[in-house]
Write a structure and sequence with these properties.
The two termini are about 25 Å apart. It is flat, with a radius of gyration of 23 Å. The strands form 3 sheets. Strands 2-4-1-5-6-7 form a 6-stranded mixed sheet, sandwiched between helices. Helices cover about 45% and strands about 20% of the residues. Helix 1 runs parallel beside helix 10 and helix 4 runs antiparallel to helix 5. The protein is of the alpha/beta class.
Length: about 375
């Protein structure tokens, strides 16, 4: 799997509509009232990748296995969610398990869709959600700190250090700043607090939900979201939930024409997934043969031996060499046999750093 992403936001900002479009499952009820989503909806989405389509076209395998992204749709949060308002705590626990957070912000006006705060204001809406997430994290840190401080009285230096880090994080969060910013400044802190699964320690992607008019050019609401994201070092993806739902009803050819008519190169789904990969520092490599073409997700900087472990631990343990063809070479030559003939199929050792789009075959012995 590529990564898991929790979708958060106020009620009626379009979270479930976007989830329905992204997952194609249509299993998250969309309704014009708060809390229509009670339990977290989960959708596993194949990652769109033109490179994989090209490889499949020329290799013609019997089986195709794309990598996937899991989206978890969390019910809308409101003021006081961290204290249980609107079933808040019940929902907040669900997003502690994901790797990234997609914060959906309503960036369109409508007299037909009510807003829980009686008006569209992205800065205010973002602040409400971020505040609730911070308070929730602070509650967890405060409880854990008491236990850690008590245990550190035994003289354990590691526990004392951990308590100091937790105190620093509490001060940071108390100033209204997400924990991830402190971790960016002090990367060594991450390992110490990983067990608490702090929500504000996770990377965030803002999803500006616009109407069709907002797709071509940023409206004032989207500009406000971009300003906030820039200050936080976060990414922004603009999506029209209605358009994404319509795209899922079309054939691939008709969808491409529809996107072109809107002046868009890619769907909101593809933009969201690509941004998620960038946010988490992930890349894709492929294995390809007549039996199967499969995509695999690893972190940037992963060695060939570690990448082999994504397939099976035995391959990592018995790693000998990796046969590697870059995607650009495959695109030019259109077959692995031609790549081998032209000397573009390389043998690499265990320390080779996997590049995005590499097509790999692992030699191993156990």
């Amino acid at each position: 799997m590529g990564f898991s992403c929790g979708i958060v936001g106020l009620p009626n900002v379009g979270k479930s509509t976007i989830f329905n479009a992204l997952s194609k499952a249509q299993n998250a009820e969309s309704a014009n009232y708060p809390f229509c989503t009670i339990d977290p909806n989960r959708g596993v989405v194949p990652v769109p990748d033109d490179r994989m389509d090209f490889i499949v076209e020329h290799v013609k395998p019997r089986s195709i296995v794309p990598t996937t992204v899991e989206f978890v749709d969390i019910a809308g949060l409101v003021k006081g969610a961290s204290k249980g308002e609107g079933r808040g705590n019940q929902f907040l626990t669900h997003i502690r398990q994901v790797e990234a957070v997609a914060h959906v912000v309503r960036c369109f006006e409508s007299t037909e869709i009510v807003h829980v705060e009686n008006g569209v204001n992205p800065a205010r809406d973002i602040d409400i959600i971020n505040t609730e997430l911070l308070i929730s994290d602070m509650d967890i840190l405060e409880r854990a700190l008491i236990k850690t401080q008590k245990a550190s009285k035994s003289g354990d230096k590691a526990l004392k250090r951990k308590a100091e880090i937790m105190e620093a994080m509490l001060r940071h969060a108390g100033e209204g700043r997400p924990v991830r910013r402190l971790i960016e400044e002090n990367p060594e802190y991450e390992e110490e607090v990983r067990e608490f699964q702090l929500i504000t320690a996770k990377p965030v992607l803002y999803v500006a939900n616009v109407d069709e008019d907002g797709l071509a050019e940023d409206n004032d609401h989207v500009k406000a979201v971009r300003k906030i994201a820039a200050e936080e070092g976060a990414l922004v993806v603009k999506i029209c939930g209605k358009t994404e739902c319509e795209l899922q009803e079309l054939s691939q050819e008709d969808a491409a024409e529809y996107l072109q008519s809107l002046g868009m190169e890619r769907s909101g789904l593809e933009n969201l997934i690509r941004s998620g990969y960038d946010l988490l520092g992930l890349i894709t490599f492929f294995t390809a043969g007549e039996k199967e073409v499969r995509a695999w997700t690893v972190e940037k900087g992963t060695s060939a031996q570690k990448a082999a472990g994504k397939i099976h631990s035995d391959i990592e343990r018995g790693f000998i060499r990796a046969e590697v063809c870059s995607y650009s070479d495959f695109e030019n030559l259109k077959s692995l046999a031609a790549a081998k003939e032209k000397g573009r199929l390389r043998l690499e050792g265990k320390e080779y750093v996997v590049q995005d789009g590499d097509i790999m075959y692992f030699r191993f012995n156990v």
